[in-house]
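Suppose you are handed only these lines of text.
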Amino acid sequence: MTAAHDFLIAPSILSADFARLGEEVDNVLAAGADVVHFDVMDNHYVPNLTIGPMVCKALRKHGVTAPIDVHLMVKPVDRMISDFIEAGASYITFHPEASEHVDRSLQLIRDGGCKAGLVFNPATPLSYLDYVMDKVDMVLLMSVNPGFGGQSFIPGTLNKLREARARIDASHYDIRLEIDGGVKVDNIAEIAAAGADTFVAGSAIFSAHQASDPHGYDTVLKQLRAALATA
Ligand SMILES: O=C(CO)[C@@H](O)[C@H](O)COP(=O)(O)O
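From them, the structure of the protein bound to 5-O-phosphono-D-xylulose can be written out as follows.
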């Protein structure tokens, strides 16, 4: 199991104010976030449409140096992989059922100098990892059905996390186990105890910054870390 100090918190910018995206990203990173989680939706693989490589490039140009974790919810995936490599992504993850050639897509990501990952919807079996564990740097378990922020954590994901953690530990590869969907201050410790080491949180973080609480991001990130310390 990953050491507690290795927990990473990745705010999902899906819940940020897109009209002030650069400032929003600066503020969550200044408040102690580790990674920028970047949700790409195509209104085909998932029923929503968000942002593409130009926005990733713009964040790099704006001065963001933190890792950018690009979650591709698109089909097909390979063209977007090349574009996000060029745009400055750090991690690129995709859904295996959205790629005709999973091994090739993983290799494309690594050949471009990025870390590669597979994403599992709540009902997608972990068996997609068979035969490609050596090409994976990240396993991302969705704890909601993809497409929207603000949904509730699906409790069955805890058992799936335990199963994924066992697979990763048995593989002896250096693979991060990320969880995405409905992560909050009151459930993050239980999620960590089930094996996750990287935590995407959208609404929990971005809803914390309000006019009445200008330090909301600091407060919620401290609360998430304090909860993780108990895991
Ligand atoms: O990829 C997705 C949704 O498809 C997520 O990254 C959500 O954006 C997480 O939002 P919260 O559940 O934390 O509000």
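What can we learn from it? The domain at 4-229 is CATH 3.20.20.70 (TIM Barrel). The mean pLDDT is 95.
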